[in-house]
Amino acid sequence: MKQSRHLIEARRAGILKMLKERKKMRVEELSNCFQVSELTIRRDLEELDKKGEIVRFFGGAEIREEAMPVMKFTEKEVINREEKELVAQCAADLIQRESSIFMNSGTTVLEVMKRIKNKHATIITNNAQAGNALENGNCDLLCTGGIYNSATCSFIGEYSTNLIKETFAETAVLGVNGINVGSGITTSLFQETVLFKLMLERCRGKKIIVTDGSKVGRTKNYKSADIKQIDILITTSRADPEELEKIKNAGIQVILADE
């Protein structure tokens, strides 16, 4: 029997409330909670996704984080600093001397730069703070230039992307705002996704994600890549253990810098 619009809207409001409380749920769980078929739940999730209230993934959905102003670089720099330093050192240990490396904007990536500045590497980046991080080292720096974003201390726009399109690198070390199996790799700034995708495409070797544990399991506004496009995730044991297990099962090597 066809359901009334009132019942449908009430159920969808209930689904949204439940997702806000639990962050993410499977279709099967929601079907049992609301005593309707999984097909009905999928339709409900599709509509909620279209409205921008949730993010669907294979077999379930999660609440979409509200769009927030992009946090300033100077504010992010002091958050989880000890974790970022551990992750950065771990990443630096993996980088070969005299290699070429794509590196995007972000505070954890900047910490990696500080630790490889004497490896005679060539760093290709849109990170406007790179020159300071590499000072008194022996690395070559190729900075994209472009439109300067004062909040993220990075370069974005056509000038930036044009340089990456003409460049290859042996390794990519990239920071993220969110990473999970369902939504992939996400960021808060749309323009950064273009550069992220290009760096992955132009990288001929290992693609490494560096992030503190708080970003694992999180979904931000804009998708940069699928999870299977990367090779290694370096984070800490503070990350959601269930999400880490899913990432491992997707074929990604997970390294916990504090272990």
Strand content: 15-25%
- Main beta sheet strand tally, sense and closure: 7 strands, parallel
Series of secondary-structure elements, N-terminal to C-terminal: HEHHEEHHEHEHEEEHEEEHEEEHE
Give the integer mean of the pLDDT values. Answer: 89
Q: Please count the helical segments.
A: 10
Share in helix: 25-40%
Structural class per helix/strand content? Answer: alpha/beta
Termini separation comes to: 56 Å
Which residues form runs of ≥5 with pLDDT under 50? none
Radius of gyration: 20 Å
Q: Please give the oligomerization state of what you see.
A: single chain
Task: Please count the beta strands (DSSP E, at least 2 residues each).
Answer: 15
Overall geometry comes to elongated
Q: Strands of the largest sheet, in order across it?
A: 6-5-4-9-12-14-15
Provide a descriptive summary of the structure in words.
With 259 residues, this protein is an alpha/beta fold. The protein is built from 10 helices and 15 strands. The strands form 4 sheets. Strands 6-5-4-9-12-14-15 form a 7-stranded parallel beta sheet, with helices on both faces. The chain has a 3-stranded antiparallel beta sheet with strand order 1-3-2. Strands 10-11-13 form a 3-stranded antiparallel beta sheet. Helix 7 links the parallel strand 5 and strand 6 (140-143). The longest helix is centred in the N-terminal third of the chain and has 18 residues, at 5-22. The relative contact order is 0.12. The mean pLDDT is 89.
